[in-house]
Write a structure and sequence with these properties.
Helix content is 4%, strand content 16%. By secondary structure, the protein is mainly β. InterPro entries: 5peptide_repeat.
Amino acid sequence: MSVLLKILNLHKCKFINTSLKRVDFQDIEFYDCVFRNIELEDANLGSALFYGTNTIKGNFSRVKFRTTNFCDQRFKNCNFENCDFTGTDFSKAVLNRVCMVYADIKSAILKSIEIISSNLNNCNLENIDMWGAKLSRVSLEKSNFSYAKLQGCIIEKSNLSYAILNDILATEAVFDETNFSDANLIRANLEDASLKRANLKYANLSYANMANVDFYKADLREANLQGADMRGVNLEQANLTGANLIGANLSNANLKIQLLKILFLEVC
């Protein structure tokens, strides 16, 4: 049985060591509330508003957060597994050591969000707006970023292996030391992005716009770069062994060191 709360707002409430399973908080406004060691499984917080709320060690698995406002909120050591965040606003929020495995985050706003040491494997992040976001040591394996807006974001030392990033807009983004092995970035716009020391082994970057991308020491072995725009790219000390470059535009690219390596391999 679910509990329906018809309350307009909650001010400075503390929910500590509390079970709120299956409670309906739809359209509720939370002001300066504290959530600590709580259970909110199967609850409904659709269109709720959070102001100055601090959440530590919360279990929110399977909670409905559709179009909820989490701007400027902080979450630490929380479980959001299988949650519905469709259209939710996470602008300037901080997520530290959270689990969002299998969460549906499509069409959400994550502008200037900060995510640290968290697990977002198998998430649906289709069509999100993550402009200016900062992600460090985040696992996003097999997540779907199709049509996402990632302009100017920083995703470093993270795992995006087997992820789907087709048709993303990620101009001037930073993906240094990030793992894109076996990922799909078909038609991705990565113009002026930085992928220094990134792992792109077996990645599909066909027909992507990678003009002026910095691939310094990147691993592009067996990568599919067919038809890609690679004008002005920096491939210094990058490894392109077995890469498919059919139809790629490499005009004005920095290929000097890599060409020497290729020639050496061919001679041997």
